[in-house]
Amino acid sequence: MKAKVWAGALFLALSCAAPAQVAVLRIQVVEGDGAVHAPGSRAARPLVVRVTDETGQPVSGAAVSFHVPEDGPGGVFAGGLRTEVGSTDSGGAASLRGLRLNRISGSFQIRIFASKEQARAGVISNQYIAGARSGVAAKARTGWRKWIAVAALVGGGAAAGLLAAGRTGGAASQPAAAAASAPAIGQPAITVGKP
Asked: 63 forms bridges with which residues in the sheet?
């Protein structure tokens, strides 16, 4: 009988001394959510998460993993992998540093998972890689450059015609007149020499 009492007392003492298990985890992105990155750069600011239990208390020693997409906008970590694993500090915080972004513009998600004992949680952080201007803007820029080049050619042709007319003492030469009457809208027409 005494052996049963001692065994029961020992079991009760051990169960009271054991730390309580974490039943529920919560992850909150504290810093870096919605960040916009330059293509091909290294992330300037860390992505910081805080892991808490069901009562809102920080959970230290929880394993935290960060996952970037396999294709499309995203990047890799220092070792060339798309997954980074860390653990929370005494304040329940874990951070992701050293993400090297690829050159594919657009939005992507970093999947974040935390686990401690039997408890698990997950959250997503949205990130963006800035892109070059849209195709329409690029075409408009190229169009303006073409018109500037055409204007320079037309202006240069007109100046050359005036110089030639000044040297001969007569009216403007035919190429200068043709350059001056070039259409302003539509495809540019440039005449060099006698038509």
From this structure: 87, 115
Place of tokens 């100046």: 159
Q: For 33-37, 91-95, 143-147, 182-186, which range has the lowest pLDDT when averaged over its residues?
A: 143-147
CA proximity to 115, closest of 163, 157, 59: 59
Please identify, in words, the CATH class of the domain defined by 2-129.
mainly beta
Chain position carrying tokens 């992850």:
27
Encode pLDDT of 41-71 as tens digits.
999 999 999 999 999 999 999 999 999 999 9
For the chain, domain boundaries: 2-129, 135-180
Which of 130, 109, 113, 132 minimizes the C-alpha distance to 121? 113
Task: Using the structure block, give the residue that is written with the tokens 């992998």.
Answer: 81
For residue 66, the number of C-alpha atoms closer than 13 Å in the C-beta half-sphere is 28
